[in-house]
Amino acid sequence: MGLKYIEPIKSIILLLLVLLSVTFTFSIWTYSPQLDTIEQSPTVDISIGERKQEEDVIKPYKFLIKYEETLNGTTEQERIDHIVREMGTWKVSQLVREPNEMNKGQMKSFFEQANQFTLFFQGEVPLPVYDEIFPIEDDIQIPEFSFDRLVVRWNPKEIAFEAHFINRATGIHYHGKIAATDTMKSYRQIVLEGENLPYYAEVNAQEPVYLAVPTEPVRMLQSTYYQEEISPTRFRDALFNDPNAVRRSQVDATHEEFGDDHALLSVNTETKILNFAHPAALSREPAETPSDLLIDVIESINEHGGWTDSYRFSYINPSYRYVKFQLYIHGYPVFSESPRSGTTEIAQYYGENRVFRYIRPYYTLDVSLNDEEEELPSGTTIVNELMGIENFDFGTVEEITTGYMMKHDLEQRIYIMEPTWFYYAKGDWVPYTPEQGGGEQIGLE
User: Fold this and answer.
1) pLDDT per residue over 254-299, tens digit each?
2) Does the first or last residue of the chain, that is N or C, have fewer Cβ atoms within 10 Å of its Cβ?
3) Which residues pair with residue 443 across a beta bridge?
4) Which CATH class is domain 228-271+273-361?
């Protein structure tokens, strides 16, 4: 009798097990645990300094205005900024290229003409980028052209302006008419007020280079700054994709490195210079356009707020994807005692959609410890002394202007900014010292 019910009982147990298995499986599939909401981690702020617009870093360093009888000018930055802001209310129309490139002699004659003013730029500025500062009519296809002199002429009879963009290296010359929001206001604020600026003189040398210098002594501030620095770890956090994967090593007493499997950041703790390299971003192709290259580099520095002091655009080489910015204080360029050290420059090679190499200081000039006014000789005196130097080829000089020589006192941990005359020759800014001077006088118009 018992054996009779064994098979039905087995079948019932097997059915129950199958149903139980299905129930468990369904429960697992549909199970949704009650989890606490995970709060998103706050974004880490890696902004080191300021973000800047094009008009903050692309600025002329000198302004000259030529009248029928006099030549006036200034390197005073507040005055130049005022002029550029007024020009920002204008628009350039009918922009055309001159069919023939100018040679040096023709450029010199052009700059010597009356009823015009000239803005001097340290580097060749891509016109499509400067359109953000000095607008060009929307219906004009802006050419991919770079200039380092911007000349604005006025017609005394009609009070009308026209703009001339000139590249001294190539001789290429574009010009266009100017539509001003208020022509008379611009004429008063630039042309009439320009008569109150210091007097300049054109150098009457037998060379096809236009030079003009102030006729009176120049007064500048000598400034001293305490050696303040930004921790290199902040640049590590800004430049590496994953700062937590970065390894730190001490190379020697004045050098340390931060690196991962993709990039390397070298630190010179004596000169306060960073050198970042990301080899995978290397591109051997020239930049497609100078304007895109300059904008990309400015934006890459903006991404981590890399404008720790007043730096200005000073050089671009699209073939090497290279852009450089010069340190300025009180509106004047700052140069180092060691010309190739890079201690007063931000330089960047821009690779494939990101930084390939980035070289810059990590010190910062915050508050001056001491400012003393100092008087430099007139520009005409410096020209006379340069012309009198034995075996010195004055024909190689392309520009003469004032700036600062930065001296780093390691023991006292200070930076001293000394007012100095500089001349630009053979691709370098060279400081002029009294020890170089002497010789015969030359003519100045």
Assistant:
1) 999 999 999 999 999 999 999 999 999 999 999 999 999 999 999 9
2) N
3) none
4) alpha beta
